[in-house]
UniProtKB/TrEMBL annotation:
Gene3D superfamilies: 2.80.10.50. Disulfide bonds join C60-C109. Pfam families: Kunitz_legume. One of its GO terms (molecular function) is endopeptidase inhibitor activity. This is Water-Soluble Chlorophyll Protein. Keywords: Signal. Residues 1-19 form the signal peptide. InterPro entries: Kunitz_inhibitor_STI-like_sf (IPR011065), Prot_inh_Kunz-lg (IPR002160). Chlorophyll b binds at P51, T67, L68. The keyword Chloroplast does not apply.
Amino acid sequence: MKTFFLVTLLLAAAVCTHGREQVKDSNGNPVKRGAKYFIQPAKSNGGGLVPAAINILPFCPLGITQTLLPYQPGLPVSFGYEPVIVGTDYIYTSTTINIEFRSEIWPVCNELSKLWAVDVSSSAAKEPAIIIGGERTAPNSLFKIEEATGAHTYKLTTSSGTVGTIPGPWLGAPQLIATNDDAKTLFVKFVKVDDDATKATTSTSRVEKLGLRMFPFY
């Protein structure tokens, strides 16, 4: 009975990923479920993505912003399937996933999760912000990675639209939103945190500290 159940799960996983491409990191290697990556804009000289306040009051939940300084790699994230797909260690395009910040340093809003979500509150704008505090199975916490033009270049999509950017409240740093305006689409690449080049320049803890400097109050 257990063998039959396992075979059934493996077949379901094969169906879920059939005809879909493995997501590749900036070096062309498959993106692994649960591993840490920086999400960095593919067509920009700025840095990576970090949590940052987008409102004065209420302060939480935090939004997500691109750092303006190119030496700031961002804050690591990991990707996971929801629902869980048994039998695969890799992330595939056009497949429902969660995105979660991974950091030991988190000075505020600790009552909320680090999962990404689309703001679906009653006060949300026409182009709602991408925020922190999602729930794994909630529709607004589900994302997909889709291929885009360029080697190992992707875009993120949600049920509310494609992830794009608008000038944010902190020196105009790009703030992530869900939009149906193609001109605002954010094209990204995934840089593995333990990449040899990263190891040569900094430790993970220092990387996290650099990324979190984008907290305007930190």
